[in-house]
Amino acid sequence: MAIPFKAALALPAVGYPLLLSWQRGWIRPPHGISDVRLGGGRTLRCDLGDSTQRTMALGLFEPAETRLAERLLRPGDTFVDVGAHIGWFTVAASRWVGSNGTVVACEPYPANAAALKENLAINNATNVRLVEMALGSQPGELSLAPTGGSGGISALVWGEGERVKASVTTLDEVAADLPNINLLKIDVEGWEPHVLRGGSSALRRTKHVLFEINKPALKKAGSSADELYGLLRDAGFTTFSPVVPRGLRRLVPDDQLFNVLAYRKGTA
Prior knowledge:
Layout (H helix, E strand, L loop, with lengths): L2 E2 L7 H13 L8 E5 L5 E5 L3 H7 L5 H10 L5 E5 L5 H10 L4 E5 L3 H13 L5 E4 L2 E2 L4 E7 L6 E2 L9 E6 L1 H4 L6 E6 L5 H6 L2 H5 L1 E9 H6 L4 H10 L4 E4 L5 H4 L5 E7 L5
Parallel strand pairs: 1-2, 4-5, 4-11, 5-6, 7-10, 11-12
Antiparallel strand pairs: 2-3, 8-9, 8-10, 12-14, 13-14
């Protein structure tokens, strides 16, 4: 049974010190499933025993990226979320693009996909198409495992938990019926080059790409940030702007893990 998470904890002045205390072990973190009322009228069902979902429950997950996505998306737009997790961006984008807009959420890991389905139902997000498959350079199959929490599911061999098999499709296949994509978000723990290689046609119809650069994961995958930039340049993207961190991430700069917005010349 879901229990309500106290809304007062979502205030940054309370939430950031509390989050830090949980991370450092100064205070025992909460556990259980909670339905959390967040900004914009959305509700997210979170597992408070998971560090990523605790951050979401406080309303403090990737604040700069969230504000950026909200600024870029308008009613009627199309948003594709690759690595949708439990729906932080998907649920919010569903409201931002409205009933005339489209959201495609790709989440292959079964536990995350199940939680995402619940969050779509709770928010009556009928404009979202859920794809329970991984994206790659070509159709096939791969295995996934967590690297330390629900927000770190990886196809790389350093996953710590039990591996599960997932079917693979391509971005081009998923987006075949989409005339254009206003925002494509990719967060797949070092698997980003494979997603881009399978999306050359879709990328030509994409206005903005918000993607993660995880240098250790990319190295493990035999890739690099330079390869990501190169693949996007080949698709016509000319400008790459690192997202300026907010919240706790702002206090601990990290040149190994950060997000970047790619767009074309003359497009902000």
